[in-house]
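Minutes, project huddle
Topic: does the predicted pose make sense with heme C bound?
PN asked that the exact inputs be recorded in the minutes so nobody has to dig through chat later. Recorded below.
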Amino acid sequence: MKILKFTFAAALLIASTFVFAEAPAKARACASCHGAEGVSNNSLWPDLAGQKPGYLAIQLAAFRDGIRQNAVMDPFVKDLSDADIQTIATYYSQLPGKAAANGDAALVAKGENLSAYCKSCHGMKGKPAAPVWPNLAGQQSAYLAQQLTAFKSGERASPHMQTVVAPFGEKEFAALAAYYSQLAP
Ligand code: HEC
Ligand code: HEC
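Predicted holo structure (tokens), as shared on screen:
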């Protein structure tokens, strides 16, 4: 009996270590695009799993307040309170990320060279030290390329990023996206 009780307690302990917190109620609608575990299955839609909590919170507030605009995202964030945003950002940041990968070795190698321009802020391997700056490691490749294009055109505003992407175009963006998408998140 004692052994049985011990086994049961140990099983519970193991289960509680591996089961992640249940999605907050207000994050249920997000799963249809960002995946049940924050890993999206459309390369134009970003993974949220493992992203920096401060960065996620800033972006959600930016969508809600109309600073960052996207017709697909906007309806899902317009009613979120600051507290909802904190809960959702914390939840996704704690889920394990997954490398999206791209597979084109030549493009990845070119992107790795170009990443010299990015390391001072996004870290040596796509993971910045600052909690309010985004991880790029493992992010969806088409999404990364699209955001770089949006910074370049000014559609997405960021004083840091707009200066960095100014000398580059579509070819460099595709290479950078290929490189970062295959790094371990
Ligand atoms: C119908 C699909 C869809 C749904 C549902 C959706 N999103 Fe999104 N989300 C997108 C797309 C597309 C983008 C990329 C927008 C862009 O290009 O700027 C995005 C971007 C984001 C980003 C920015 C990520 C980054 O790396 O900058 C965050 C954070 C986010 N979504 C969170 C959420 C949350 C939280 C919910 C639920 C409350 C949600 N989304 C619901 C499609 C969706
Ligand atoms: C001076 C610091 C700095 C440098 C250098 C820099 N970035 Fe950024 N990057 C940022 C910041 C800050 C943000 C968040 C912008 C925001 O708040 O919208 C960002 C955002 C991004 C995003 C959007 C991520 C997402 O999830 O939506 C991508 C993609 C990106 N950077 C790629 C790059 C690449 C590629 C390079 C090198 C060519 C680079 N960055 C160089 C600071 C920098």
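Observations noted during the meeting:
- Residues 6-18 have pLDDT under 50 and may be disordered.
- Residues 38 and 64 are 19 Å apart (CA to CA).
No decisions taken; revisit at the next huddle.
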